[in-house]
Here is the input.
Amino acid sequence: MLILFTLPIALLNMSKRKTSIEDIARKAGVSHSTVSRALRDSKLISSKVREEIKKLAQEMNYVPNAIAQSLQNQRTYTVGVVVTSIADPFFGELVEGIEQVAREAKLNVLLSASHGDFEQEIAAIENFHYRRVEGILVADSRVSKQYTPKLTQFTVPTVLINIDTEDQGKTFHSVAIDDRLGGSLAVKHLIELGHTCIGYLGVGDGSKAAQQRLEGYQMALAQAGIAQNPDWIAIPNPDHEIIKDLDIGKKMLPQLVEAGVTSIFCYNDMVAVGALLACKELGLSVPRDLSLVGFDNTALSSYVTPPLTTVSQRMLEMGKLAMTMLLDLSQGKTVENLLLSPFLVKRDSTDIKLYR
Here is the structure.
């Protein structure tokens, strides 16, 4: 026999309703304000009562209302992070470093992509500001002097990542990598292998990182006494439609091969992977016919065939340091901008034993 029991609607609603502070107060026989203060560890309530109320709240499966809490104590426990693209492996490792430090500080991370566009970057920052985040981190910012007055209107502590703020004076705080040194390390490695015809495969996004890596390439050639050839530099026109880094490598590698280069320094690992794919289509062996060096040292660089020689940006460490700097700023501490030194990671795409 099947017996159906019909519960009163009020009882059904009660079973679904979350436990409130009023419920705890009623059960404990104290006022609403006493429970609220006890759960906030207020010293106005004795330690014994605080512990009893916390225990009761746990037994009743009480879940604090995060929105109400934030309005009450003027905190949102969130930080905003603006990256260029969520598809780039570089930013995945960077955000992981940010989250590790944020998690320890009991902060949540909100993520937004600017797609390399300054207006979208500003819009993301404004949105975070309106959401009352406790700090903002901006990676690969397109910030420049003319925009300084606009950005200084925001009162939330802000740290720029992967951009040298030397032109901004003390307006901004930053954690960056020495891109000139990184470009120089890559090209010097190729020179040490015996290459004298070295190409540069860049991106046309107008970023300071792109400019400085090209300068590092040119500096290393000059120091080695190698005459520079404009045909050895391939950078897409920034006025054209935005091209993904992988496609840049695939589409622009052939013109460098035609220019007679025997090795190429690529702006980043994704460009280098695109170049690897183009080499396969052209029937070129890497590194026997052409040596390639990337930049970033993303996880992908060690999985491709052959594994990619690259310049390590120390992304995880950069994310941790930037988040730590943001926490220090929020606590009113004095901070110094950081410029990290990259290092070369040698793999098979430039194996000296295979170079002819």
